[in-house]
Design brief:
246 residues; alpha/beta; Purple Acid Phosphatase, chain A, domain 2; 6-stranded mixed sheet; 8 helices; binds fe (ii) ion
């Protein structure tokens, strides 16, 4: 089975559209790792697409916040403003859909899906030591996570931890053949708000039979996404950061 792995779309319809065009014909099922909304100007359009097309969806912290189910004190000011705007503009059916999303880990084929980490849906896995700790909570060998908005991953075997590199510079893809008897924590990156200094939308394709992972980047209409954020009256910083991928 070939999976399209999406995370942290954050209401960015333009980035999602580019990823779908780029991955046409290359997947059988969609897995979404949460943070469907928050920050971007098209929460209803993106939620509708995920609801209709993704076979597995995990809730993210912004999905909880944008439904009013989460205190906003942990969010910075622009994120709070975006959450309140999204709460106000989400159609009731979409709000209910987001409210009912499960936390991870959820099993899919031969891997697991979480938002933050296998131990805690709100925890960030950012470096090798985080990955080593997270590996102790793994329900299986392979886990896809999001939340950090950094594309990449970690392999853990017998006390050794190494990184799986994402595409760099002008590369559009990096492939990794996953090995047996190894724990993998894999981040497809963020579609709608990358923070790894690459403004291109990030996603992953995973073949669960051959255990082949392709981390991919695709350029999208950043200016159009920025305009929708500004037109919504959301903080300008949320639009500005899309151009630099921070
Ligand atoms: Fe996120």
């Amino acid at each position: 089975m070939r999976f399209l792995i999406l995370s942290d779309i954050h209401g960015n319809k333009h980035a999602l559209d580019a990823v779908l065009a780029d991955s046409t014909g290359q997947w059988d099922q969609v897995v979404c790792l949460g943070d469907i909304v928050g920050y971007g100007g098209h929460p209803n359009e993106v939620t509708a697409w995920v609801k209709q097309n993704a076979s597995t969806v995990i809730r993210g912290n912004h999905d909880r916040a944008c439904c009013g189910d989460e205190a906003l004190e942990w969010f910075n000011r622009p994120a709070q403003q975006a959450a309140l705007w999204t709460l106000e503009h989400l159609e009731p059916a979409h709000r209910q859909y987001l409210q009912e999303l499960p936390p991870g880990p959820v099993a899919v084929a031969n891997f697991w899906a979480v938002h933050g980490s296998p131990a805690d849906e709100d925890e960030y896995i950012t470096d090798r030591s985080d990955a080593e700790v997270a590996a102790r909570y793994m329900p299986g060998e392979i886990c896809f996570f999001g939340h950090t908005h950094y594309q990449g991953g970690f392999g853990v075997r017998r006390g050794r931890v190494w990184e799986l590199a994402p595409p760099k510079g002008k590369e559009v893809e990096r492939c990794h053949e996953l090995e047996n008897d190894t724990v993998y924590l894999l981040n497809p990156g963020s579609i709608g708000q990358p923070r790894d200094h690459d403004p291109r939308a990030a996603y992953a394709l995973f073949d669960s039979v051959t255990k082949t992972l392709a981390m991919r980047r695709v350029a999208y209409a950043v200016e159009a996404a920025q305009k929708s954020i500004r037109d919504a009256g959301l903080p300008a910083w949320l639009a500005d950061r899309l151009r630099v991928g921070r």
